[in-house]
Amino acid sequence: MARTSRLSTSVLLTCAAIGVATGVLQAAAGAISAPVSAALPILYGLVLGVHVLPGVIAQELLRRPGVAIITHLVAALVASAVVPLWIGRYIGTALLIGGLQELIAAISRYRRWEPWRFYLSAVIVGGVIAVAIWFAADVERFPLWGQIIYVALFVVGPVLWTAVGLAIGAGLRRAGVARRDRA
Q1: What is the mean pLDDT of the chain?
Q2: CA–CA dist 141, 46 (Å, integer)
Q3: Minimal CA–CA distance to 71: which of 89, 42, 95, 107?
Q4: Could you list the residue ranges forming a coiled coil in this record (predicted)?
Q5: pLDDT at 64
Q6: Which ranges in 40-66 belong to alpha helices (H)?
Q7: Measuring CA to CA, which residue among 63, 133, 60 is closest to residue 96?
Q8: What is the pLDDT of residues 12-70, one digit of tens each?
Q9: What secondary structure, in 3-state letters, does 2-47 show?
Q10: Which of 57, 141, 147, 174 is deepest in the core (most CB within 10 A)?
Q11: What is the mean pLDDT of residues 139-150?
Q12: pLDDT per residue as tens digits for the range 123-144
């Protein structure tokens, strides 16, 4: 007897569709990140927060193990097709954020899908990114109030984009995109 896959073809195709759409958004965010960093660097965290979208939409819609990381990797490949030079950044970000989203869902054994769980994930992702950016960027160039806002927006960005992702996922669910697989 053939072994059945844990993820059906329809689930994988749904992950791919979400990944393509969010990968285009990530490429757009990558395109504006340099001008934003140069003109209004304090807002960079809001732009970078878009990277949580693939996993949030996939998990909210499909509520299954593995969908966040798969969708993030597809999004990274799409964004990398637009900016091949950044493939390492996009894949690394996909593994980091998708992995954190999967880990938080796995802690609850993929049984808790309330909004608070997604927001907790967003705060953790934002915190990890804020720490990394603190060491990578020259944050000391800002006055103290600017440093606080700069770092805080790296947490607020993923939280705001999580709200967008939850709304999109819920809308897709209401539209019937997440039909149950037939045996």
Answers
A1: 90
A2: 19
A3: 95
A4: none
A5: 94
A6: 44-48, 53-62
A7: 133
A8: 999 999 999 999 999 999 889 889 888 888 888 899 899 999 999 999 999 999 999 99
A9: CCCCCCCHHHHHHHHHHHHHHHHHHHHHHHHHHHHHHHCHHHHHHH
A10: 57
A11: 86
A12: 999 999 888 888 887 788 888 9
For residue 35, the tally of other CB atoms under 10 A from its CB is: 10
Residues whose CB falls within 8 Å of the CB of residue 167, separated by 6 or more in sequence, listed in order: none
Q: Take residue 154 and report the two structure tokens written for it.
A: 């790296």
Residue 177 identity (one-letter amino acid): V
Contacts of 49 (CB under 8 A, 6+ apart): 126, 154, 156, 157, 158, 159, 160, 161
Measure the CA–CA gap between 62 and 123, rounded to whole angstroms: 22
91 vs 47: CA distance, rounded Å: 17
pTM equals: 0.91
